[in-house]
Amino acid sequence: PTSDLFLHTFFKQKSMENVHQAAEEDDLYSGYNDFNPAFYSEFENDVGFQQAVRTTYGRRPPIGGKFPGTAIGARPLFSSSGSRMPLASSMGRPVTGAVQDGLARPMSAVKAAGYSSTLTRGSAFDPLGRSRGPAPPLEDTPEEKLKLLEKKINTLIEESCMAQSTGNLQLALDKAKEAHREERALVKQREQSGSADHINLDLTYSVQLNLANQYEKNEMHPEALSSYKAIVKNKMFSNAGRLKVNMGNIYYKQKNYHKAIKFYRMALDQISNAHKDMRSKIKHSIAVVFIAMGQYSDAITSLEDIMSETPNITAGFNLILCYHAAGDREKMKKAFQKLISVPLGISDEDKYIPPNDDTSSKMVIEAIKNDKLSQMERDLKARAEKYITTAAKLICPAMDASFASEFDWCVDMVKNSQYVQLANDLEFHKAMTCLRQKDHNQAKEILKTFEKKDSKMKSAAATNLSFIYFQEKDFDQADKYADLAMSADHYNPAALTNKGNTVFVKQDYEKAAEFYKEALRNDSLCTESLHNLVLQIDVIEWLGVHYIESQFFEKATQYFERATLIQPTQVKWQLMEASCYRKSGNYQKALETYKEIHRKFPENVDCLCFLVRLSTDMGLKEVQEYATKLKKAEKMKEIREQKVKSGQGSTAGGRREGSGGSADSNHSSGSSRGERLSAKMRSLTVSNEPYEADSQKELDASYMDPLGPQIERPKTGAKKRVDDDDDFGDEELGDDLLPE
């Protein structure tokens, strides 16, 4: 307004009257007092401005009046003497520093926290306003409440997914249901508040999809199908048609193959060609359903389409299986070539080699070497190698006449592919196939080519060569290749087992046991070493006697055969083996065994006795020959017994006068276990009654378990049914039954 402008100019003029003027060159405020009177004429000629002045001036608040809520300070007036005079502002605020009505004002023009113009002098200082009490609580707006509910629903979805990942399917389903209820309540509140346009469709889709997925995981297939259908039918959800793949999976689990194919094809129609990987997976699912239905030709069509557009190892392997089921060998070869040419997309292993000796770089490489991505790469590579090896075995069946040539073709194809390391595995499999076909020469020829390979393959080949030579009873070569296998890989349990076997046949049982134990230390599941470790002679003897008592003569035969291998010079094991054949009714096998014993031990009286009896019962013409040999053997036996008795009588006095007592004691303690077990075996066959006699005898109470009391043994009755034919004389069952 004009009055304010005038006052401002007046103040300036009055203040300058008391100011000493500086020199012309030092006037810092030159031109400050210049005023253009044209400004007044402009306002005077402005009708609107003058009308405003006339209508508002009379309603201005009086000078010195209070006008709350303003922060404009009063302008001081300067008198001619230089003193300041408080002057009210145009808004009527009290002048700064003035005292009105006995109230003190702050000396600042800006109102600070805790100060008030109404406070009296000496009042309490309260800058934080604690005397006014706590602030009233903030109330959320309706929109903020809806946002909080959306956040809660998202949290429930996350908790449901986490529960599913940990295998707690029931909790995952409960969380999904709760999220669905909360989402329905949210939509209803949106509609009631008139903000239906702000409904979060992404949240609705996530809730319904998670609920359907949890129904499927809990095998609640009807509920899952109903939920998927609700999503698919909702036109507001874009790309919901892809969920028909999930519906097809459910129908496949229900073995409703026709509906599964229908929904797979419906999903395929709704996916554009730009999504090649998705279309490839759906086509593969269709092929799998056709395979389950036995429609291999339709499956082949789908798989061939996949291999021509987006080849992968799983589809390639399934295509070979379909060709194999259709019996098309040539197409199997073509599919095999496509299979080995599929790129895996796995980076080179050199990335795990540190470029320098930097410790931090090594730590990073060690960390990424075993991360999730590296594990996925290793799994993919292992699966590809498994598929290729299995496909090669299908192409080259073992019984086929062209087995060798077909296998060589597969090996050549693999050598020229990215799976060159599998060529050695295929060659090794070829050698094993030859071994199963009893073609030892071909197997040995192939295995010997691995002597210059890496240590792992070299050890495996040498182990199998040792096994082959051991079966051929070429124990020197078996021992040689066992040593070679151990030198290539000393922790190979199979090599240690074979080495133990070569030592075992040399009757160095303690050393053999050490090799078996070492093999078990390297691999606790090495059943071969565990089995061989229990072959000390006393264990075999106990098991043989046990099975004879239990009337399982075939089982007993196996253990006496092993005892024969351990102690081939002990005739008693071979006699017990022949006795088991006779007790089981296999008289022809018993006769052949007795003849073999007679060939090795021509003066054995017990063997000749049973040869005479069996030949007589079977009406053989060799009866007279064996009877003559028996008489001669009995005479020789009597002569030996007389010499032994005469020798014992001449030395009895010397033993009594010297240290004979301790010798007898040592002999008794060293052979007590053998005597007790010998008595046990003698009690099984002691008379000359017919072969199937039913006489029963009590078990010898002095029998002691050769394995000791710490192992629980199968318990048998106190009575037993035995064959009372004596298989051997008492003099053959002395202290040498168990090794000294």
From TrEMBL:
Residue stretches of biased makeup (Acidic residues): 724-740
Taxonomy, superkingdom: Eukaryota
Disordered, as annotated region: 637-740
InterPro entries: Sel1-like, TPR-like_helical_dom_sf, TPR_rpt
GO cellular component terms, A-Z: centriole; ciliary basal body; ciliary base; non-motile cilium
GO biological process: one example: kidney development
Keyword Transferase found: no
TPR repeats by residue range: 241-274, 537-570
Start-end of Basic and acidic residues biased regions: 712-723
Keywords, in A-Z order: Cell projection, Cilium, Flagellum, TPR repeat
Ranges of biased composition (kind: Low complexity): 662-672
Gene Ontology MF terms: kinesin binding
Protein name: Intraflagellar transport 88 homolog
The species this protein was found in: Nothobranchius furzeri
Organism lineage: Eukaryota, Metazoa, Chordata, Craniata, Vertebrata
Annotated gene: IFT88
